[in-house]
Structures are given as C-alpha cells and as structure tokens.
Amino acid sequence: MRPFIQKSTPTLSKRTSTFSITKKYTYANAATATAAAAASATAAGTTTSTNNAPIVNHATQETPFDYNGLIDNELRKKRLDKSYRYFNNINRLAKEFPLAHRQMENDKVTVWCSNDYLALSKNQQVINKMKLTLDKYGAGAGGTRNIAGHNKLTMELEAELATLHKKEGALVFSSCFVANDAVLTLLGEKIKDLVIFSDELNHASMIIGIKHAKPVMKHIFKHNDLDELERMLQMYPKSTPKLIAFESVYSMAGSVADIEKICDLAEKYGCLTFLDEVHAVGLYGPHGAGVAEHVDFESHRQVGIKSTEFKSVMDRVDMITGTLGKSFGTVGGYVAASSKLIDWFRSYAPGFIFTTTLPPAVMAGAAEAIRFQRSHLNLRQDQQRNTAYVKNGLKQLGIPVIPNPSHIVPILIGNPDLAKQASDILMEKHKIYVQAINFPTVSRGTERLRITPTPGHDNELSDILLNAIDDVFNELQLPRIRDWEIQGGLLGVGEPGFKEPVNLWTQDQLNLTNEDLNPNVFNPVVEQLEVSSGIKE
C-alpha cells in the first residue's frame, strides 16, 4: 500500500515557493521507493542504503559474535597465570576490631591486612556523628553537587581537608581512584603540549588517568630514581608545561618518595607536582597530613593548623590527593590545592560533575575522623610501635620482609601459588587473615603477603601472628632471608650491600604526647571555603 502523502494546499502564501512544494513530494516519493526496495531486498537476503546501493544483510547470513567464548577465554587466562582473584568473606566487627567473622558469626578471625590503618571506622565519636547525621539528613545526598547534592556537610569536610593540608581549597570525590583519574585526565586535556613524568610504581588510578590524558607525552621513570627523572626533565625546555606524578608511600612495597628533592626538580625545570598521599594521610606528620607534612614535622607541630612562616614542603606541592577510606575510616577521595585549581577541577572534571554526592552521614563521619586523628598523635605513634614490633619479630625469625621506612610490612613469597597457600593456611589453621598479593598488583616473581598493623594490634596479638607465620613458612618450606641471599637477593631482601632505610618516625617524635600539640588542633570547626560553592566575581 502506498503511504499517505498530505498534499499541499493550492492557495500559497507569498513565502511559499513552488520549489518547496515540489521538494516535499520528491522526498515523500523517494521514501516510498526506498521502503519498497528495502522490502524486496530483505526477501532476497540483501538490503539497501539510503542512496539505494544494495548491501549484504549480515543478520540473515552470519552467526552472532561469540561473547561468552571471549569471556571464558579471558577468565581462563586469569586462572592459568595465577592472577584470578578469590574474595574472602570478611565482616569486621566494630566492637571487637581487629576481629571479624566469616560467613558464620561464630567463625572469627583476626584481620591483619586492613587499610583501616587507625581503626577509625570503629571509633565511637565517628559512629555517633554518623548516626546523628543519618537521623537528621537521611541516607543519601539526593543529587550531584550541582543539583540538590551540595550541602553544609560537603563544605565542612572540604574545609577540614584544606586545613589539614594547608591548602586554599579541597574537592571531595566518590573515591580517590576517581579523583586521580579525573584530575590527571583534565590536566592532560586542557594543558596544551603537557608532558607527564610518572613513577613506575604509581597506583593504577594514576596510570589510567595519565592514559586518559590524551594527547600528552608521557615518560615513566624508575621507581624513586630521581637521577633518571632529571635526565628526562632535561630533554624539554623550561617553557614546556610539565607534571611530575608520584606517591608518598607506595602501598605494596612500603617505599617512600623523597618529596623535597622532587619539589626541587619541579621548581628547577618548571613542573607542576601531583602527589598521592592515600597511604600516608592519618599516619605521618604531627596532624596526619601525610609524608609532606612529616618532612617539616617540628615546624608544623608548633603552629598547629596554621600555616608555617616559611614555605614548607607541603606548601610546595601543587596538588595532593588522598582518601577518606583508609586512615579516616569511611569512603571517598579528594584533592587539595590552590583555590584556582580547585575551582577549575570543580568546573570541568566529569568525574566530579556527573556523579551523586557522598551520603551526608559519610561526610560527617569523615570530618569527625579527621578532627579526631588530628588531635590524637598517640594513634600514629601506637601504629608505628606495633609495626616496629612485628618487623623486628619477623626479622629474628628470618622471615623476608621487603625493607622500607613506612608502616607497610610486605613479606616476600615470590610465587603466586605459594602466596595463596600461605594465606589460606593462616586463615584456616590459625584464624588469621592476611591477603596474598599477586600479579597484576605486583610484578610476577615478587608475590607477597601484606601486613598492616593498627593501634589495636598489640604485642599479644603480634606474638600469635609471628608464631603462625613461622609455622606456615615451615609447612610450605618457603624461602627465608638466608635462601634469598644465596639467590642474590630481591627487592632489598638478601641483597649484598643493601642499606636498610631509616624509619620516617624518629624516637623523639614517638616520645611526644597529645599535650605537645598546638591547642588550635583541638578546635572542632574550621571556616567554610568559598571555592566549595563557587567563587563570586
């Protein structure tokens, strides 16, 4: 049947031309012809394009793509290379931490690998603050920051974070993965001819952000090798825009960057600096601002939350990212920087703009955790003492711990199957949970167990852990320090002439008390920042 075509009225206005009427009929007739041709072609197993050229109808002649086959093959590869991940059912108990139960509530284990470094997720002040906020404001934020999701809790949290890092502003994201990706991507997209220099052990979130930062030039320098970094920097004029992206504490090895020297290089060659303090906030510095604060420990301790009279290392870093999901016991990520940079990120970063704001209770809990840890130096000190106790105990047993100056305790296994077996035996036989870390989180041949003591892991629990690990090494005949020495060593374990790094915390710093902090750190409220809502012209 010929489709109905509405005819033009014979009476034309002055603005209607004969051509326009003809064109309407032409288009309608062409559409009719095309439809008829398509129907005929379909019956013959072909179809036509808009210009009447016949094309093959693949829907009738080919089998569909084997999606399941591709997925099966990808998962098979994961199992074959021993990188397939098994998740343990771990339910951490707020009133009994570091204990958790597995599937059955009476099946309890001691957690030794959590990133809740200060156990603030169970802190009663934090929990009470979250409960009150939940009752008052409900479960969700109700929208993005631009649409109904911007509130006083976001402003208070961003003010706390900016104050912690002594920056003009801060911006909260749904996670630090998103923060790193969004900020690095934006920098690469907007700064023409930007060159990014990235440490080879940077976190996946930074690597992905740099990959998304097209079309920038990228250079990867050897881990903490500042001589190689400088040689790379020398390849470009000072006028070329450049960015150095690095971490303070590298989570899987516990190694620490020389932030001050990197800032020296950045200023010498005209670079921006992007520092990820995810595994350092809460743990270093007199107020828990991270390693950048710890470098000038005494100066920051004396002035408290106020700025130092001189330009500190923390001041010299352009952008600092961190998380609310580790030492601060909740969830979320952030970037702290100048108000101009924060306003730029706020206005352009899709990872910030197009996502729902964190729940009010989460933001209130995070702000409370930041304030609490800022004024409780003893939390950081206890965590450091417990870490030192475990490291010394493992060393006496000849257990190969990758040497580092931080709170991370990585036990070198060097084999994915054995690392998984060691983790399983600790869980099933000793009721101790320590996660095996395999590729791609670490490179093949460097598989390990990663232990992270908290203030709650006292000497009694540590002795149980030490005996259990010794038993597992005996049962699986795992290589100890002397075995690695025979093989020439690896990652500082058993390497001839390797100089063990000095702990970041000095004995004098560990001997301080909360009363030695400036009284202003106990102030519960800091002034809200204009940049959180938008700067008025």
Task: Please specify the SSE layout and strand pairing.
Layout: H1 18-43, E1 46-48, E2 54-56, H2 67-80, E3 91-92, E4 99-101, E5 108-111, H3 124-137, H4 152-165, E6 169-173, H5 176-190, E7 195-199, H6 204-212, E8 217-221, H7 226-233, E9 242-247, H8 259-269, E10 271-276, H9 291-294, H10 297-303, H11 313-316, E11 319-323, E12 333-337, H12 339-348, H13 350-353, H14 360-374, H15 377-396, E13 409-412, H16 416-430, E14 432-433, E15 436-437, E16 448-451, H17 459-476, H18 481-486, H19 507-510
Helix pairs in contact: 3-14, 4-14, 5-6, 15-17, 16-17
- Supply the CATH superfamily name of the largest domain: Type I PLP-dependent aspartate aminotransferase-like (Major domain)
* Known CATH architecture of the largest domain: 3-Layer(aba) Sandwich
Count structural domains.
3
What is the CATH domain class of the largest domain?
A: Alpha Beta
Strand order of the largest sheet: 6-12-11-10-9-7-8
Main beta sheet: strand number and arrangement? 7 strands, mixed
Contiguous runs where pLDDT drops below 50 for at least 5 residues: 1-28
- Any idea what the shape is? globular
Count of strand segments: 16
Q: What would you report as the Rg, rounded to the nearest angstrom?
A: 30 Å
What percentage of the residues does DSSP assign to strands (E)?
5-15%
Q: What would the CATH topology of the largest domain be?
A: Aspartate Aminotransferase, domain 2
Tally of DSSP helical segments: 19
Average the pLDDT over all residues and give the rounded result. 92
The structure class reads alpha/beta
Distance between the termini: 65 Å
